[in-house]
Amino acid sequence: MRKKLAVIALSAALASPAVLADQNTLDMLQAEGVQLTDQQTAQILAAEGEALVGAVASLVAAAGNDAQTVSKIVTAAVIANPQTSVESIVAAAVRANPNASAAVVSAAIVAKPEASGNVVNAAVSAGADPGMVSAAAAQAATTVAQNQAAAAGRGQGTPGDPAANVPAFVPAHQKANVPSIPMGSGSGGGGDASPT
After folding, report:
1. Considering only CA atoms, which of 110, 129, 84 is closest in space to residue 176?
2. What is the rounded distance in angstroms from the CA atom of residue 121 to the CA atom of residue 131?
3. Are the CB atoms for 128 and 94 separated by under 8 Å?
4. How many Cα neighbours within 13 Å face the side chain of 25?
5. Distance between alpha carbon 155 and the CA centroid of its chain, in Å?
6. Phi and psi dihedrals of 25, rounded to 5?
7. 3-state secondary structure the chain
8. Inter-axis angle of helices 50-63 and 67-80, to 10 degrees?
9. pLDDT tens, position by position, 89-128
């Protein structure tokens, strides 16, 4: 009887969203074409909850000034982890790589448009330049509108339809409306951009 209960408890734990989040994140990163080292892969697979947010932030930091890679990482993290607040992902990513703030904001808004206000606030609170954040948010809003119009044209909802606001996962090699995000110089803005 104890063995049966232990198996049931283990099965329930392994099927929980927190345990699956690390694998979902890894799968999404790979689908986006993000190249990971063995150490980064192990770090993602071992992380849960806030540790997973930290692991994503370390990937953003390692991406340096590669806005496209930063964008792919943030998109994968936001889509793969609906139970994790997009704000915590954005704040950690901005702190880890302040020069990539525009790419972080844009990717997060495109991945989860309904959280755009929270994304902007999280980025500015984490030390991103407010002007850069506003510009990235405006560019992301344009991309979201284009994606929604394209989805409506394919019969996937109409503007104003709640289903039209849910971005579908599209592999990186098939994305047509991915904004080009210039990397910031790191100057301007206020706040402490160092990780805490």
Report:
1. 110
2. 12
3. yes
4. 34
5. 26
6. -65, -45
7. CHHHHHHHHHHHHHCCHHHHHHHHHHHHHHHCCCCCCHHHHHHHHHCCCHHHHHHHHHHHHHHCCCHHHHHHHHHHHHHHCCCCCHHHHHHHHHHHCHHHHHHHHHHHHHHCHHHHHHHHHHHHHCCCCHHHHHHHHHHHHHHHHHHHHHHHHCCCCCCCCHHHHCCCCCCHHHCCCCCCCCCCCCCCCCCCCCCC
8. 170
9. 999 999 999 999 999 999 999 999 999 999 999 999 999 9
Angle at 99 between CA 137 and CA 62, to 5 degrees: 115
Residues of the chain with pLDDT under 50: 5-18, 158-180, 183, 185-196
Residues 177, 140: Cα–Cα separation, whole Å: 10
Owner of token pair 């953003």:
60
Q: What pTM value is reported for the model?
A: 0.70
